[in-house]
Amino acid sequence: MTKKHVWIDSDLSVGMERENRPGYSDVDDGYAILQLFRAENVKIHGISAVFGNTSIKNAFPLCQKMASEFAYEKIPVYKGAGEKIELGKIKTNEAVEALAEALKNQKLIIMAIGPATNVGLLLLKYPELSSKIEEVVLVAGRRKPTDNFAIGNKGRNAGDANFDMDVESFRLMFQHKVAVVLCPFEISSKVWIKQNDLDQQAAGDAGNKWLASESKNWLQQWKDQGADGFNPFDVLASHYIINPNDIISEKLNARIEIHPNDTVSDENDFKDYLLCDKNQGYPVTYCYDVAEGYHEKLMKSLNA
């Protein structure tokens, strides 16, 4: 079997309480990483932690935990960026240096499921390695600024967090002509993990048991917003890497525009948006739907 050579870059936050407001952080990175661990056609060359859903001081040990306890082979883990790119004071980190060394030896697919800061720093420090990146698979983007990321039915809109937290990293990928695959809210909003799915996972191995247990509070937060399950955003990126035939995509053009902030009610608040359509822009692969029978395939891949 031909292996896909993959590097994972994640703001892993499974089970962590939020640092700036009450509640718990996202668990979907854990699902994406576990799915890649179990994919027979994937060879993981490294995992880099990045800030995002939680701080780097939390994301790094969580990445170490998943690699040491749930991976079927030894995978090195590196500490990456703890804040977004500041063009006036660029500094590298151990994750960027490790990724650079890996790319010198092997072309890689990068699954960047947090802010793409480590990828952006790599392109700034080692622009000659851009040709060694087969593609970067990210969770970001939308078609129109009015395509809200609605969480539940009580009026809460989420931001395009991975993009919002480091816009410069996306500009850098476009500038360096890196192949970009976007798995936005549009596709993840069509996939649900519910209580019966957690029950099924709880009967599985140690990795499944851990994810099922740590997902309880996250599921409850979504139920509090009027949903009966949660969207596992990042797992659409991992599934695209494993089997793109299960993911429906099209070629669009991406660009960055400024529009009113849809996550607040302040009419004077604006922000950047990553918009994708047929107009002028940077060519990307835009994933927007899943194949028939997707949920069954997803659960099977997680419970392998």
UniProtKB/TrEMBL annotation:
Gene Ontology molecular functions: purine nucleosidase activity
Domain Inosine/uridine-preferring nucleoside hydrolase: from-to ranges: 27-264
Highest taxon, organism lineage: Bacteria
Single Gene Ontology BP annotation: purine nucleoside catabolic process
A Pfam family annotated for this UniProt entry: IU_nuc_hydro
Keyword annotations: Glycosidase, Hydrolase
Parts forming coiled coils: none
CC per GO annotation: cytosol
InterPro entries: Inosine/uridine_hydrolase_dom (IPR001910), IUNH (IPR023186), Ribo_hydro-like (IPR036452)
PANTHER family: INOSINE-URIDINE PREFERRING NUCLEOSIDE HYDROLASE, URIDINE NUCLEOSIDASE
Protein name: Nucleoside hydrolase
Species per Swiss-Prot/TrEMBL record: Cryomorpha ignava
